Amino acid sequence: MNGGSIEGLRLAVEQHGIAVRVSVIVSEGSTPRETGAAMLVTPGETADTIGGGALEHEAIAAARRLMAAGHAPWRREILSFPLGPSLGQCCGGRVKLLLEVFTRHELAALPSDAGGLGRVALLLRPAAAGAPLAIVIQRKTPGDWPAPVQQLLDEMLSGQTPATPTLVRGRRGSEDWYIEPLSQPRVALCLYGAGHVGRAMVRVLERLPFAVSWVDVAPARFPTAVPPAVRVIAERDPAAVASSSPPDAWHLVMTHSHPLDFAICHAVMQRGAFGYLGLIGSMSKRARFLRRLAGLGIAPEMLARLHCPIGLEGLRGKEPDVIAVSVAADLLRRAASAKVGIGVRPLAQAKRI
Description:
Layout: H1 6-16, E1 19-28, E2 38-41, E3 46-48, H2 53-68, E4 76-82, H3 83-87, E5 94-102, H4 104-107, E6 122-126, E7 134-136, H5 147-158, E8 166-168, E9 177-181, E10 187-192, H6 196-205, E11 210-216, E12 231-234, H7 238-243, E13 250-253, H8 258-271, E14 276-279, H9 283-295, H10 300-303, E15 306-307, H11 320-338
Parallel strand pairs: 10-11, 10-13, 11-12, 13-14, 14-15
Antiparallel strand pairs: 1-2, 1-5, 2-3, 4-5, 6-7, 6-9, 8-9
Helix pairs in contact: 6-11
């Protein structure tokens, strides 16, 4: 789930007693958001977006009507919009929305820790009202659903087919089924340094597809308030965290100390298995680091993978927020180019101070 996450659902239901999750389940042609985009609607508030404008206005109104309609369990509704003819939007595409009511009853069927279910967990339900959600984490899980649904579940769980939000059309008048990953795929990113730029980076990355492990040498280095999805690691030797990180993790190095930066870069390169290594600094800092790393026996092809300076080329400005936006944009570009979509995997347990 991306928009309307389990955590967001729990908070909304705790505060308001009821919430409607609005999901884009069909997106054809030019549309404001993609299939899988979702938002939450409560009696007085909304969170996230399915694209704004007339489409979102109609969806919010329909969600609140659905909330007020009664208390039967597992209430759902499908809305279909040709955006030009029905809403006067210039996009011209077609969107189908699934509205789902959540109270404490429905929320009880969802796991308290989605990350603990494994790399791929799929959320499955019929588009029609009345039937509960199913969470599928193993292939060949028996269930009372059509053969095409079972086949697609097995293919997604085996990796044969990407685990993406998908509407399975019913055959011969039977109902449609909607499948989506329970957790949004994220890139494991180790961010070293809790200074001004590191703090700006965390703010920018909070809602982007990165699973951030934030590393510095002492608890006092971190701010009091940290986004809940960010894992804070206080470790006297951050290079040890780099050495034990997942082999496809990305590394972003911006500590308060050049020797510490160097030790982390050396640990990442010495291990040799990583997705990306970015170092804050100038071309002269890069040249000095490369000379020293070469002297320690790091191979030329490994040295070539060090990105320094970081961020989008040509974007000027040394303010922390400008740097953070530039670096985040570059990371997104690289992830899209590499078609990265790995699941969240925790780092090995680090020694804490």
